[in-house]
UniProtKB/TrEMBL annotation:
The chain crosses the membrane at residues 20-43, 64-96. This is Transmembrane protein. Keywords: Membrane, Transmembrane, Transmembrane helix. It comes from the Bacteria.
Length: 115
């Protein structure tokens, strides 16, 4: 396990930040960059060793998959109009998750209470 100030952690941190940016760009690319981001999460997961980095990867992956699930539910409910509200809620939830993740990453803090 590498120390928090090591070159390995800095490299992992850059990868994590890049993935957060890809997710944010997903709002402008119809989700295509978010798909690229989740693929990167799975491809790089075995290379990530630092507990802080692992927590961010899990946060990103859960954000993506829960967002997909609730988007599908909202799409079905859009037939009944209430699903449109669901898309608004999902948008703000997704933005919150991206911002919270980037803020904690900038402070070298993990997600889920990882120090």
């Amino acid at each position: 396990m590498s120390s928090f100030g090591s070159q390995d952690f800095n490299s992992e941190k850059n990868t994590i930040l890049f993935i957060y940016i890809l997710h944010a760009l997903g709002f402008f690319t119809g989700g295509l960059t978010s798909i690229a981001a989740i693929i990167m999460n799975y491809v790089k997961l075995d290379d990530i060793k630092n507990p802080i980095s692992v927590s961010h990867f899990k946060w990103q992956m859960r954000t993506f998959w829960w967002g997909v699930l609730w988007s599908l539910v909202s799409l079905i409910l859009a037939y009944f109009i209430i699903g449109l509200l669901g898309f608004v809620v999902i948008f703000f939830w997704f933005v919150y998750r991206l911002v919270a993740g980037m803020v904690n990453l900038n402070k070298d803090k993990g997600m889920y209470g990882v120090a």
